[in-house]
């Protein structure tokens, strides 16, 4: 089980990303538009830099939904290999059979 503070921090970052997503997209569109004047693009770049760091999507870290573990994460299932193995052994995941020989 991951530290509770790490899991809570990641949830806070995800909330911040969601809150600033529209504003970041709007400013990035202005910055990337080559037809706009350079001064307007520069002002948009400064506004983008003034936004909180945690509002950037790359600050999100994938964590297991069950345990909060940050490593060995399967994106499709949104859980770690350990949680997947435990749930598979119990039979909680349809279609997954843990092999044993």
Automatic annotation (TrEMBL):
<dbReference type="Pfam" id="PF00253">
    <property type="entry name" value="Ribosomal_S14"/>
</dbReference>
<keyword id="KW-0699">rRNA-binding</keyword>
<dbReference type="InterPro" id="IPR018271">
    <property type="entry name" value="Ribosomal_uS14_CS"/>
</dbReference>
<keyword id="KW-0694">RNA-binding</keyword>
<dbReference type="GO" id="GO:0006412">
    <property type="term" value="P:translation"/>
</dbReference>
<dbReference type="GO" id="GO:0015935">
    <property type="term" value="C:small ribosomal subunit"/>
</dbReference>
<comment type="similarity">
    <text>Belongs to the universal ribosomal protein uS14 family.</text>
</comment>
<comment type="function">
    <text>Binds 16S rRNA, required for the assembly of 30S particles and may also be responsible for determining the conformation of the 16S rRNA at the A site.</text>
</comment>
<dbReference type="InterPro" id="IPR023036">
    <property type="entry name" value="Ribosomal_uS14_bac/plastid"/>
</dbReference>
<keyword id="KW-0689">Ribosomal protein</keyword>
<dbReference type="GO" id="GO:0003735">
    <property type="term" value="F:structural constituent of ribosome"/>
</dbReference>
<protein>
    <recommendedName>
        <fullName>Small ribosomal subunit protein uS14</fullName>
    </recommendedName>
</protein>
<dbReference type="InterPro" id="IPR001209">
    <property type="entry name" value="Ribosomal_uS14"/>
</dbReference>
<dbReference type="GO" id="GO:0019843">
    <property type="term" value="F:rRNA binding"/>
</dbReference>
<dbReference type="GO" id="GO:0005737">
    <property type="term" value="C:cytoplasm"/>
</dbReference>
<comment type="subunit">
    <text>Part of the 30S ribosomal subunit. Contacts proteins S3 and S10.</text>
</comment>
<keyword id="KW-0687">Ribonucleoprotein</keyword>
């Amino acid at each position: 089980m991951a530290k509770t503070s790490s899991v809570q921090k990641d949830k806070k970052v995800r909330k911040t990303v969601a809150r600033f997503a529209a504003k970041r997209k709007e400013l990035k569109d202005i910055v990337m538009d080559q037809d706009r004047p350079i001064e307007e693009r520069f002002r948009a770049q400064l506004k983008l830099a003034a936004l909180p760091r945690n509002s950037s999507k790359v600050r999100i870290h994938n964590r297991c939904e069950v345990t909060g573990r940050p490593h060995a994460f399967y994106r499709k299932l949104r859980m770690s290999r350990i949680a997947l193995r435990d749930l598979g052994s119990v039979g909680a995941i349809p279609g997954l059979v843990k092999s044993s020989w």
